[in-house]
């Protein structure tokens, strides 16, 4: 079967007042349907830029990409889960989750039912009529994930969605995410800084070089599914995490030096 | 006795001492400022001492009493200073006389100018029975407060509503913003009293309501437009990205993302504009009106009836507070998510 996402030689150049800045260079990636791919790289390597290009939020300057539509032409090709949640403070939790459906013209009763179902699945049914200002960070991120899944896109793009959470909430949410994902097995492109997280969540870990970013290495993750944090106690997990760090380490140093220069 | 009570007694004793000495030795005339300063310090110390021992559930009541208590203390101090001969009663009539003047203004009707302060609302039932609605309308027409409020509302709405629209367009569209921004900042700072004569020329009746409302509208417009523009530009770009990614078209973006995101800032601007409208209209009424709270205040200043003048100023302050509360109430209904 053809890959769900194909990106070939994607490049992005920004024009700034100080000249041209290459954010992304010659980046190629193929993602199969139902695959959970994690992209890891040092700060400023362009991984978020790549995600935004896939999402159609930013144009690329060279190369091409394609997200294969499924059987239903009405389904949106992609939806993004942002790092800062980006759920609207002026809408209630359930209005936020139903937002994508509302924009597509789904009638109120139907979209409320779908949204309620997803709130139930992320454990927030009781908070449907609350405002985002009244719930915690972890809860906000669950709303953000529910909003994406309720919209039923072909592909889920996640930009460090757990980055703003404290370490303990983050650990809990990682398992939550796996549980929810197992139910739908959507194609996911997941950006993170954390190697441990990428190995825990992903089927493959894609490493990027420091700025300007391009593909460095791809690590397949052979750990069994469904995953729980018991997996992190296995030697296979530890070896893989270390191997990735060894590959990434040089890039991180380069990125830090460049920032100091 | 414990620390707290001892301190309280000390402060009270201090107050008695200071005031007693100054009154007894007739020092108020020359050293009123020292007496007031010492009084103030002792009262603050007393209030803080009480504040330490106030239990948590009475905290709000305590803080509210501080907020209300201070102006009351000022009024008492004012009264005392007038009675003690420090303040001239002619220029600074004591609050008790201002209160009496306010009462007098409320209940009386000036036959010559056919005006009263509030429009004698207690006559409404009677007028309705004898003359019907035209009779009631006549009561509104004689009211200074209503004349001023009518101008404020009309000017505010005529200015603020287009202001919000123009501000939003400026916020969303770079070209429009670059074209209009500098011109707006330039016109915004012109004193409204200065442009009032020019505005008068535009209207068929230069001495009617038109120019007054127009000047208020102009002040409101520029303030609200500039403020709204900033509010729209200040929206976190991540919300725009989310809106786009979840399929919002232009109108949906405006209605579901941009407008609600900017609404809190817009409301802050509306509050400023309403206050400014009141200030501008009172100033204009000073120089060019025959009815209105500003006109009334200035009239009594001209004929040196200072207690009624101060009463007029008090009415302006009361209007300001009422309008602000009204707008905030509307804000709370429109923006239920801001309730933290």
Verbal overview:
- The complex is a heterodimer of chains A (261) and B (340).
- Chain A has helices spanning 47-55, 93-97, 99-103, 108-121, 137-150, 167-184, 195-201, 235-260, and strands at residues 5-16, 19-31, 36-40, 62-67, 78-81, 155-159, 187-192, 204-208, 215-220.
- With 261 residues, chain A is of the alpha/beta class.
- Chain A has a domain at 1-77 and 192-261: Rossmann fold, CATH 3.40.50.
- Chain A has a six-stranded mixed sheet with strand order 5-6-7-3-8-9, sandwiched between helices.
- In chain A, a hairpin with a 2-residue loop joins strand 1 and strand 2 (19-31).
- In chain A, helix 4 crosses helix 5 (137-150) and helix 7 crosses helix 8.
- The termini of chain A are far apart.
- In chain A, 43% of the residues are buried.
- The mean pLDDT of chain A is 91.
- Chain B folds into two domains: 3-83, no CATH class; 139-338, Orthogonal Bundle (MetI-like fold), CATH 1.10.3720.10.
- Chain B is globular, with a radius of gyration of 26 Å.
- Chain B is mainly alpha-helical and 340 residues long.
- Helices cover 80% and strands 0% of the residues of chain B.
- In chain B, helix 4 (95-107) packs across helix 14, helix 7 (144-172) packs parallel to helix 10 (209-233) and helix 7 (144-172) packs across helix 13.
- Chain A binds chain B through residues 52, 55-57, 76, 78-80, 82, 84, 86-91, 99-100, 102-104, 131-134, 147, 151, and chain B through 236, 238-239, 241-242, 244-249, 252, 256-257, 260-261, 263, 335-340.
């Amino acid at each position: 079967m053809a890959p769900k996402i194909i990106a070939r030689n994607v490049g992005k150049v920004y024009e700034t007042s100080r000249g041209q800045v290459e954010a992304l260079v010659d980046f190629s990636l193929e993602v199969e349907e139902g695959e959970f791919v994690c992209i890891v790289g040092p700060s400023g390597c362009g991984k978020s830029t790549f995600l935004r290009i896939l999402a159609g939020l930013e144009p690329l300057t060279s190369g091409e990409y394609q997200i294969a539509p499924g059987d239903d032409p009405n389904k949106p090709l992609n939806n993004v889960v942002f790092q800062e949640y980006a759920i609207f403070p002026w809408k209630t939790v359930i209005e936020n989750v139903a937002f994508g459906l509302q924009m597509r013209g789904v009638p109120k009763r139907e979209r409320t039912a779908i949204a309620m179902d997803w709130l139930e699945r992320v454990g927030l049914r009781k908070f449907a009529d609350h405002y985002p200002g009244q719930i915690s960070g972890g809860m906000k991120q669950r709303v953000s994930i529910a909003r994406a899944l309720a919209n039923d896109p072909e592909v889920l793009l996640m930009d460090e969605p757990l980055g703003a959470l404290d370490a303990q909430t983050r650990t809990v949410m990682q398992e939550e995410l796996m549980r929810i994902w197992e139910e739908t097995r959507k194609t996911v492109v997941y950006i993170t800084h954390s190697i441990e997280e990428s190995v825990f969540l992903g089927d493959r870990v894609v490493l990027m070089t420091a700025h300007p970013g391009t593909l460095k290495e791809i690590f397949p993750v052979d750990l069994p599914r469904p995953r729980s944090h018991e997996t992190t106690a296995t030697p296979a997990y530890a070896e893989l995490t270390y191997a990735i760090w060894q590959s990434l380490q040089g890039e991180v140093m380069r990125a830090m030096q460049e920032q100091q220069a | 006795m414990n620390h707290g009570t001892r301190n309280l007694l000390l402060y009270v004793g201090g107050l008695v001492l200071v005031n007693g000495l100054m009154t007894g030795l007739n020092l108020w005339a020359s050293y009123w400022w020292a007496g007031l300063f010492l009084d103030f310090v002792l009262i603050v110390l007393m209030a803080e001492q009480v504040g330490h021992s106030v239990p948590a559930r009475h905290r709000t009541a305590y803080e509210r009493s501080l907020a209300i208590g201070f102006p009351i203390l000022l009024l008492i101090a004012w009264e005392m200073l007038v009675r003690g001969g420090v303040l001239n009663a002619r220029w600074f009539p004591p609050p008790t006389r201002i209160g009496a003047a306010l009462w007098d203004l409320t209940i009386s009707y000036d036959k010559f100018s056919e005006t009263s302060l509030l429009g004698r609302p207690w006559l409404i039932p009677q007028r309705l029975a004898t003359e019907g609605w035209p009779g009631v309308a006549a009561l509104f027409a004689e009211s200074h407060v209503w004349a001023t409020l009518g101008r404020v509302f009309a000017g505010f709405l005529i200015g603020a509503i287009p202001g919000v629209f123009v501000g939003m367009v400026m916020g969303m569209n770079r070209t429009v913003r670059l074209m209009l921004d500098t011109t707006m900042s330039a016109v915004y700072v012109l004193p409204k009293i200065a442009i009032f004569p020019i505005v008068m020329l535009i209207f068929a009746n230069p001495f009617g309501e038109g120019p007054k409302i127009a000047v208020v509208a102009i002040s409101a417009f520029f303030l609200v437009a500039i403020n709204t523009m900033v509010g729209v530009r200040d929206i976190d770009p991540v919300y725009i990205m989310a809106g786009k990614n979840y399929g919002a078209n232009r109108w949906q973006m405006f209605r579901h993302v941009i407008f609600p995101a900017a609404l809190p800032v817009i409301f802050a601007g509306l509050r400023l504009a309403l206050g400014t409208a009141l200030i501008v209209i009172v100033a204009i009424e000073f120089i060019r009106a025959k009815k209105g709270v500003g006109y009334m205040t200035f009239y009594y200043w001209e004929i040196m009836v200072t207690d009624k003048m101060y009463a007029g100023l008090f009415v302006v302050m009361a209007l300001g507070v009422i309008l602000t509360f009204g707008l905030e109430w509307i804000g709370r209904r429109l923006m239920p998510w801001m309730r933290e």
